[in-house]
Amino acid sequence: MKILPDFSTKSMPFLQALKVTAASKVFPVTYSTLAPDAILSLAYVKYNIEIPKNCFFWHRGLSDIYLIETIGKSYIFRVSHQHWRTKTEIDFELELLTFLKHRNIPVAQPLSTKSGHLSLEIDAPEGKRYAALFHCAPGEIAIGDLNSIQSRLVGETVAKLHCASREFQTLAQRPPLNFKYLLDDSLQIIAPFLHHRKQELKYLVKTISYIKETVKELPQKPPFWGICWGDPHSGNVHFTPDNQMTLFDFDQCGYGWRIFDLAKFLQVSLQTGLSRKIRQAFLEGYQTVEKLTDLEESLLHPLTEAAYIWSWAINLNTTKLHDYSRLDDSYFTHRLCKLKHLASKDWELF
Questions:
Q1: Which of 142, 219, 243, 336 has its CA 20 to 30 A from that of 107?
Q2: Residue 190, CB-side half-sphere exposure with 13 Å CA sphere
Q3: Which of 256, 254, 255, 275 has its CA nearest to residue 266?
């Protein structure tokens, strides 16, 4: 008996989408760019800010960033992507930033609305999106990237952040930065693109298994486990001329191993070409405040690989939505080469 293909809407999502499209007067949307003029009006109505002058779409990353200029100050208005963060995940981040600011950690704190909320709900064409307003962080990203003094200061501040956040409490939730979220979920995102490259897929699976086996002895309890920034690197810090700093972009924060934050710094620093001297200054600065154990130091290497795999999956998910043309063989070849370099004995060669 010949088995006919299943043409039900359950097995073929595009048919379900076809039904929705036919029944709707508005074509379905996966992502929309909100008009800067409307953002400007919304911010002025909802927040106690000065008379606004301009609003610019500043940057598209994991969220959309708008620069708002008023008569006396500048602000950053961040709008989440509908597919990236839920309201409770955004609440977690904004409450954490407020907590850290009150503990004298130099982070960009969100402003409260006139009604006392840290975020705004926006009815975008694709669904609910959530926005938050921040003062512009004073200073700028280090020209030519971090020097040794700045890198050491960032390391010290990350350690102070880890210490202070042990008292943080919230009902909001975020996915913990554990094996499932960092590695298993990332594998599910990457693997479909490597089915025709079976050896590379096997290599990725083997690397993930090795990381999990190597790191399994690391306790998930304080001081090893706590709040992590999730994305510490030189591009997320502003310095003034006298080296006063402000940390921002906590979009990847959550509970995790403190050593993972250091590994994430190393992963991005290696990717952007920061020298060993600068990377070492960060680690030394951290340990002037928080002393790492020998076990944690021994796990910097595999967790740097984990940070790379996670960042790859995040990038891949975003690129699928906004720039699929980039996802050719060269994209995956380049990514796999970088991962293999991180796995080698020469991972910190320069």
A1: 219
A2: 29
A3: 275
Chain center to CA of 49: 28
Using CA atoms, how far residue 216 sits from 52, 133, 162, 228, 308, in Å, is 52, 39, 21, 18, 18
User: Is 215:295 a contact under the CB 8 Å cutoff?
Assistant: no
Side-chain-side CA neighbours of residue 285 (13 Å)? 23
pLDDT reported for residue 1: 45
CB contact at 8 A, 290 and 223: yes
Average pLDDT, stretch 118-134? 95
List pLDDT tens digits, range 7-55.
454 555 656 655 655 556 678 888 999 999 999 999 999 999 999 999 9
Q: How would you list the strands of the sheet with 74-80, edge to edge?
A: 52-60, 63-70, 74-80, 127-135, 120-124
Contact 177, 183 (CB under 8 A): no
Query: Rounded CA gap, 318 and 311, in Å?
Result: 11
Contact 320, 83 (CB under 8 A): no
Q: In whole angstroms, how large is the CA radius of gyration of the chain?
A: 22
Q: Measuring CA to CA, how many Å separate 140 from each of 29, 146, 234, 248, 250?
A: 35, 11, 10, 12, 17
Cβ neighbours for 20, distance < 8 A, ≥ 6 positions apart:
28
Give the tens place of pLDDT for each residue, 167-202. 999 999 999 999 999 999 999 999 999 999 999 999
- The full length of the chain comes to 350
Task: Give pLDDT tens digits for 193-248.
Answer: 999 999 999 999 999 999 999 999 999 999 999 999 999 999 999 999 999 999 99
> Are the CB atoms for 94 and 119 separated by under 8 Å?
yes
HSE, side-chain direction, 13 A CA sphere, residue 27: 2
